[in-house]
């Protein structure tokens, strides 16, 4: 009889939730994503071109943003090369102003003063950037090569909408993060 009463008491605790895990042991709540980056143009004005060449472009998905990384060996955080990153109404090849279609609700133009190393990263004008697949990305839609003109490489990055973005200069790379939301 005593065993039956113990089982009934245990069953009552489970059914009423009295035996639940305390709140302190519950899974941690995730904080809201930082979106204070803004959508205005970002640049690093300077007087010298990068010493390295673009050797690769890769992307990554993160909880709050999509990331595009431009590998440029020789780029340093002490002396970052010139770059300009901004939303543009349409992407075009600089000297001819011939439009290059880029999929997405908005287009970010990424320009930096490093040539493309064709032996390591072969790309042609108006072609999608090699090796990138945007399936499953929340923000990125497309990326096209806009050419190398007067010391600047031009990339058109198609995104879902005009969203906040930031630019980071790291050793040997330039990084563009675009938030998933405001």
Describe this structure in words.
The protein has one helix at 2-16; strands spanning 42-44, 56-61, 65-71, 83-88, 106-112, 140-149, 152-159, 165-170, 173-179. The protein is mainly beta. It has one domain (42-179): Immunoglobulin-like (Sandwich). The strands form 2 sheets. It has a 5-stranded antiparallel sheet, with no helix packed on it. Mean pLDDT is 83; it is low at 1-29. This is AMIN-like domain-containing protein. Residues 53-180 form the AMIN-like domain.
User: How is the main sheet built?
Assistant: 5 strands, antiparallel
**Strand residue percentage:** 25-35%
| Sheet with the most strands: spatial strand order | 1-4-5-7-6
Rg on CA atoms, Å: 24 Å
Structural class: mainly beta
